[in-house]
Write a structure and sequence with these properties.
Strand 1 (19-22) and strand 2 (26-30) form a beta hairpin. The chain has helices spanning 6-11, 59-76; strands at residues 19-22, 26-30, 38-44, 82-85, 101-105. The chain contains 2 helices and 5 strands, in the order H-E-E-E-H-E-E. It binds adenosine monophosphate. The site of adenosine monophosphate has 12 residues, from loops.
């Protein structure tokens, strides 16, 4: 746990979140600024700053999170598929330094994976 981390505070119940699933190792809740009708965040309860900070010991946890994602997307209203996004570090656009999977979907396609850079 990290004292100042906003997602650790959600895990500890110190700030509110619209939780949809929780077990001993992970927690899922609605993103506060959803980009699509379905936009959940799935986080490990253990503080891991980013995917760049995982080790072999985290493989079972990460596997369990991946395995939970489809069920969470279906239950949240995206039965035909979804996108799983993990932003890593400043290049990846990560704003909250606690590992999180974005589960994004809904009734319409979520759109292109990336916009082509101007110079490519
Ligand atoms: P990222 O840019 O990948 O770090 O995404 C961080 C995400 O966390 C953004 O989509 C924010 O809208 C979301 N977020 C930040 N604070 C909260 C909060 N208190 N509850 C729910 N979602 C949050």
């Amino acid at each position: 746990m990290s004292e100042d981390c906003i997602f650790c505070k959600i895990v500890r119940g110190e700030i509110p979140a619209r939780k949809v699933f929780e077990n001993d190792e992970m927690l899922a809740f609605h993103d506060i600024h959803p980009l699509r009708p379905v936009h959940l965040l799935l986080i490990p309860k253990k503080h891991i700053a980013s995917l760049a900070g995982v080790g072999p010991e985290d493989a079972p946890l990460l596997g369990n999170m991946m395995a939970a994602a489809n069920r969470l997307a279906v239950e949240a209203g995206s039965p035909e598929g979804f996108r799983l996004i993990v932003n890593v570090g400043s290049i990846g656009g990560q704003e909250v330094p606690h590992l999180h999977f974005h589960i994004v979907g809904g009734p319409e396609m979520v759109g292109p994976m990336l916009r082509r850079a101007e110079n490519s």
